[in-house]
Amino acid sequence: MKGNDLISTLYEHGTLASLMAGNMDGTITVADLLKHGSTGIGTFNGLDGEVIILDGEVYQAVSDGHVNHMTDRQAKMPFASVHTPEDLEKIELSNVDFTALNGDFAEKHALKNIFAALRLKGNFNHVKVRIAPKQEKPYPSLLEVAKGQPTFTNDNVTGTIIGYYAPEIFGSVTAAGWHLHFISDDRQFAGHLLEFNADQLTGDLQIFDNLQQHMPINDQAFRQGEVDMGILRDSIAQSEGNND
Ligand SMILES: [Zn+2]
Question: Signal sequence: where (predicted)?
């Protein structure tokens, strides 16, 4: 369990609300993001793909299904979350899927009102991901993009799930509930996780007592953008929801 004196921080750059409103220009470099953690998820400039960051290595799944190992530290991201794995609670799960994560698992670990990172490894019977296609200006809303995102499936694949749990009350700052990405061990298959099931997975859970929300204050679209809260709530539910 956590020591009382240890602060465990989830660092987030940009907000889901701003991304939903179509502010998709990259506003933090990979180099700057990695100063705040070695592990995480995000997307690139123009909503170009799904990003998985493991041990400081950055992978980008692009919408034709390929996975790039990104070594350009000056590439920019509009929305990303990272943390430094520490103070981990080891976990072993049998017969695991989103229903289990949303149900027994979330309840057992009392996740409802906290931020947490989840990393799970093993052999997956089935994985379904989606990959955001790169957008051109003028950027559409994320809801428009969500209607046309390609999905990919893979069966009997070994890999890693990495991502976060966020409380519903922060649901316009970041995706409420689970926001998980997947990458295969051979680094050939990756994306934003929509469905999965596995007989046996091992990994770790990290509970954060601190959220560091970083704002792209030099981005005028972020500074001056209008957010319609009603549309925003519906959009988030439709494009980011995976609470089945
Ligand atoms: Zn995602």
Answer: none
